[in-house]
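Standup, Tuesday
Yesterday: got the pipeline producing structure tokens again.
Today: sanity-check two examples.
Blockers: none.

Example 1:
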Amino acid sequence: MLGIHGFFLWNVRGRVQKGDPDFTAFYTAGKILREGQAAQLYRGATQNAVQWEFATDTDIRRGPLPYICPPFEALIFVPLTFLPYGEAFVLWNLVNLGLLVAIAWWLRRASGSGAEFPLWDWVLALLAFFPVFINFLQGQDAILLLLFFVLGFRALDRNAEFAAGCWFGLGVFKFHFVIPLVMILALWKGQRLVLGFAATASAAALVSLGIVGWHGALRYPAYAWHVVSVPGHGQTPLALMSNLLGLVTGWPVLETVGWPLRLVALAGSAALLIVVVRMRGLANDARFFRLSFACAVVTALLVSYLTNTHDLCLLALPLALLADHCAAHWSERQAMKALLISSAPLLISPLWILVWIRWGRLNLIAILLLWWIYAIRRELLRLKGNAVSALASAMSSA
């Protein structure tokens, strides 16, 4: 898989200097802040003027690549703007590599059976996961969110709900994933998690307000909605979104249906959230928490309004939890095979390349994710049934 990724990256290396990667939007936001134009952060004309300073040779878009994250995240990229675009892209990816090493370290510490493997095996395994590779290809920020998810999980695993909420609150630069996950966890774990989330999310909101002012802050919701919802203004094609919205609406024959199909996707998302929220009893049992949390992360990706390929690097956390569970219960091979069959296709890079480049149908990945949730929930119910049977047997023996 690493060889495939290296070959792919080598063949598109010329695109980086042209300013084609998504990193262009982050670099633009950093330059706007550095040049003292923070109030204009969400104006298309300002973004276009800045991008033309370093991305004059791109041939894949007619307008600016829009920056749609909250203002506070743009502060991260200000120091990178002191470098030329190409060097800043390389440095940002080196930062992402460092974050990936930290993620591998935390996952290794959280793992039972996986602790015997060297840290660099974990790092290489993460690099072999196609959505992680896409983050490096595009210069995206989802690896940072993955780090916050891993740290939030570690806190919950130690019953530190307030600290977990704080970590998730730091991830509000991708609020469309964080909010569904926090909603599920809040209904599972209670108000301490919500208080922690509110603390850091509020701090991020105040920093954003200080950066762009009231007018910029009030403009942001309509601007972001316009970008992600109107074709030709930055919207990801629905067929390339690996969520329920993409699965339901991302088909050419259904383009004329419009909002009714979006309502179907909304209803499906609500139903999926209800199913996962009702797993509260399982999630509050330490024996079943890890698989339940994996289910919650996959659900957050499916119900999000905007799920790109690079965002699916968040699946590295549930994949690690699933691998640890399978290793610990390998003697029950029939049940473990059912779990592995549903997740194994996600590890095959040629499959991702086929559905992306050849078919343009990354929305099909949502089917695998739904299958995965079904398999995890079925395994949880099996484990619960075994635990109840064991308890009944012990009581009858006594």
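Example 2:
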Amino acid sequence: MGEHTHDHGRDHPHDAPLTDIQLRVKALESLLTDKGLVDQATLDALIDTYETKVGPRNGAMVVARAWADSSFKRRLLENATEAIAEMGFIGRQGEDMVALENTAMVHNLVVCTLCSCYPWSVLGLPPVWFKSAPYRSRAVIDPRGVLREFGVELPDDVEVRVWDSTAELRYLVLPERPPGTEGLSLEELAALVTRNAMIGTAKVKAPGAKR
């Protein structure tokens, strides 16, 4: 096998033991490349695209534009697939997108109860916890409890809606625009938007607020 250029454990010390998940990923990657089923360079390029080039930045720009452009926001809520495609972000698997607007009275939370279907084209790679069994089950059974664990306390009169992603349909939460952002540029607005806010496990903080 050629030189391995991508390290799935890039964020942990080189002298630290790999976690069970990291070991499994590396074992599967080695098996696929050894059998010639996956080209290592192609695999590295694909992972790099979603891990470092996409990340949540595409989704953050979608949210920022929706905050700043009421016409785009309307198109996003009516047909997210087409609106997101306007910005050049298209799912590789042909999945449709739905945008869910958080308001003062409704808070949306996204989960995938069967596996880990996730909008890669706008949010990059899914966080580890999104794929975990506790999140996948508790987000449905006790969404308010899950949100509290993420630091989101909602008044009793706010309705929590839980949405289950599938291979054909994936969701992007449009978080509430925080106060004090009226004069910010699209880039400055996008910088406020976190991945968790677009899943529904966080709210977007106002500029200067503690995260």
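Quick observation on example 2: The chain has two domains: 20-53, 56-199. The radius of gyration is 18 Å.
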